[in-house]
Amino acid sequence: MEVKVSANTRLKKKKVNSKLLDILYKILALVIIIGIWQISAQKIGSSLLLPMPMDVFKGFITCITDPEIVKNVIITLQRVLKGFMYALIFGLPLGLIMGFSSSCEKLFSPLVDSARQVPIMAWVPLTIVWFGIGDGPTIFLIAFAGVFPIILNTIQGVRSISKDYYNAAKSMGASPFTIFTNVMLPAALPDILTGARLAISTGWMSVI
Q1: Domain count for the chain
Q2: Any idea what DSSP says for residue 174?
Q3: Phi, psi angle pair for 50, to nearest 5°
Q4: Which of 86, 85, 92 is nearest to 188 (CA)?
Q5: Other Cβ atoms within 10 Å of 201 Cβ, number
Q6: Rounded Cα–Cα distance for residues 147 and 129 (Å)
Q7: pLDDT per residue over 70-94, tens digit each?
Q8: What is the DSSP-derived secondary structure letter of residue 182?
Q9: pTM for the structure as a whole
Q10: Are residues 128 and 31 in the same domain?
Q11: Is 106 found in the same domain as 44?
């Protein structure tokens, strides 16, 4: 019993030490980057080309304390979240269907592959015609940019599920809805979350 306790204690200490080392490495990397930045800025001698780290920090503090900038950031956040929700609403069901059914995948794949090849800026004139001036075009572009990572990662998540899980559920008399909620969705969730994370990042890049 004492051997097990000591082994667990050693394992916990190793994990703590590993986390501390990771933190120290990150701090060291940050210090090195800031040091190189400071030296480079001093040698260039132009705040227009490369400002000092302290000047950037002061500017950052000024931005986050400016009510007008904070207001605009909140508006942008709302647009990104709305676009992300639309991308999730359309992308998640389509990805699940395409991942589960090869027939649906063959049906929708040409449309999805064709649409995602079009540069996001090419849709700007059309979105202005469709939605007018305002939040509509921006939200559409965010949703359009984010829907494809969700679709593709959801398809990958569903396809990676072993057939044994489906067979085991069917052998126990599970209904299609039960298989969907208790087998497919939980097993594909890691890939779905990966797609959602990528959708948010691409949404930020699509903000106009």
Answers
A1: 2
A2: -
A3: -150, 100
A4: 92
A5: 13
A6: 21
A7: 888 888 888 899 999 999 999 999 9
A8: I
A9: 0.73
A10: no
A11: no
Contact partners, residue 95, CB within 8 Å, separation at least 6? 150, 151, 152, 153, 154, 155, 157, 158, 192, 195
Query: For residue 82, what are the domain limits?
Result: 67-206
Tell me whether residue 105 is exposed, middle or buried, using C-beta atoms within 10 angstroms of its C-beta: 0 to 12, 13 to 18, 19 or more.
Answer: middle
Residues 27 and 71 in one domain: no
Backbone angles phi, psi at 51, to 5 degrees: -70, 160
Same domain, 60 and 114: no
Sign of CA pseudo-dihedral 133, 120, 208, 64: positive
What CATH number should be reported for the domain holding residue 75? Answer: 1.10.3720.10
Name the residue type at position 133: I
Length of the chain counted residue by residue: 208
> Is 155 found in the same domain as 170?
yes
Q: What share of the chain is helix, strand, coil (3-state, %, to 5)?
A: 85, 0, 15
Same domain, 75 and 110: yes
- DSSP assignment of 81-146: HHHHHHHHHHHHHHHHHHHH-HHHHHHHHHHHHHHTTS-GGGGHHHHHHHH-SSHHHHHHHHHHHH
pLDDT digits (tens, 9 = 90+) for 160-202: 888 888 888 888 888 888 888 888 888 888 899 999 999 988 8
